[in-house]
Amino acid sequence: MASQAHSLSYSGCNFLRQRLVLSTLSGRPVKIRKIRARDDNPGLRDFEASFIRLLDKVTNGSRIEINQTGTTLYYQPGLLYGGSMEHDCSVLRGIGYYLESLLCLAPFMKHPLRIVLRGVTNDQVDPSVDVLKATALPLLKQFGIDSESFELKVVRRGMPPGGGGEVFFSCPVRKVLKPIQLIDPGKIKRIRGMAYSVRVSPQMANRIVDSARSILNKFIPDIYIYTDHMKGINSGKSPGFGLSLVAETTNGTFLSAELASNPQGQGAAMLPEDLGRNCARLLLEEIYRGGCVDSTNQSLALLLMTLGQQDVSKVLLGPLSPYTDVPLPHYDQLGQLKVVGEVPRSY
């Protein structure tokens, strides 16, 4: 392998995305060893290899070396270049898995990013495109990332295991981020949602809406849940249905919850009534947790605060999600972004 004297060294497959994203933002190469070394199927998974290929596309001059077994990865980041491109995501994970990282990288590219992502738009593991559109985009606008070209659109919906979805994402370039002061979440003023169904009866979405409203109507009258039933080529390759809900507060905070049906051929069949009620309860739990940023976007908010100007940013968070509660990047006394180290729990 090439000279790796100044690279940061890690072990294991945990936090692979965070490590590669922070490496790209800081310009520090990383070497990750023992990736599932003791597993029956050792090395990188297909969705992780697809993520590395995506990083290679959005950068210029990156150097990536992987050993034969896939258990050791060396990544030397190049320049964040951007531009127009397409990428086929692995159907083992949702498009949200890739989109979360692009939201961190896109504002700092040389050219505005315009990308088409294909794969699974809604699943039970990663944030759906609907939730990221309703919560992450308003959060980025708080940091001053906004223009007419700032867009996230679902062109086709795709459910696991077949996928077949398509998403268009475009983001402007911002050299400097605004500091934020998000310390008062406000009161819930309305709830919006999207009940979707593909390759099943359109009535499924209506049944989801009725069951979700049966719980939410007890708390607030301003509720509107849209139904989205895509047909033909726009409906992907697998049947499924689901619901995403977003509660908006008087101060512009967005809190979200979502549920999707079990993939075709996996697990027990799920009734749309049960899914709607469970999703409504998840939203109520998210509201109870509080904070000015929901659980899905906590790590995004903290990262953008770190990358902002040398000014005070404040954000009020509810209980930290497991994804957020890991060592975070911070600046040293010389103002250099450090990828390792503990950060105090008071943000």
UniProtKB/TrEMBL annotation:
GO biological process entries: endonucleolytic cleavage of tricistronic rRNA transcript (SSU-rRNA, 5.8S rRNA, LSU-rRNA); ribosomal small subunit biogenesis
PROSITE patterns (alphabetical): RTC (PS01287)
Cellular-component GO terms for this entry: nucleolus
Keywords per UniProt: Nucleus, Ribosome biogenesis
Residue intervals of the RNA 3'-terminal phosphate cyclase domain: 10-338
SUPFAM superfamilies according to UniProt: EPT/RTPC-like
The family this protein is said to belong to: Belongs to the RNA 3'-terminal cyclase family. Type 2 subfamily.
PANTHER family, alphabetized: RNA 3' TERMINAL PHOSPHATE CYCLASE, RNA 3'-TERMINAL PHOSPHATE CYCLASE-LIKE PROTEIN
Role: As part of the small subunit (SSU) processome, it plays a role in 40S-ribosomal-subunit biogenesis in the early pre-rRNA processing steps at sites A0, A1 and A2 that are required for proper maturation of the 18S RNA. Activates BMS1 by promoting GDP/GTP exchange. Does not have cyclase activity.
Subunit record text: Part of the small subunit (SSU) processome, composed of more than 70 proteins and the RNA chaperone small nucleolar RNA (snoRNA) U3. Interacts with BMS1.
Protein name (database record): RNA 3'-terminal phosphate cyclase-like protein
Native source species: Bos mutus grunniens (Wild yak)
Source organism phylogeny: Eukaryota, Metazoa, Chordata, Craniata, Vertebrata
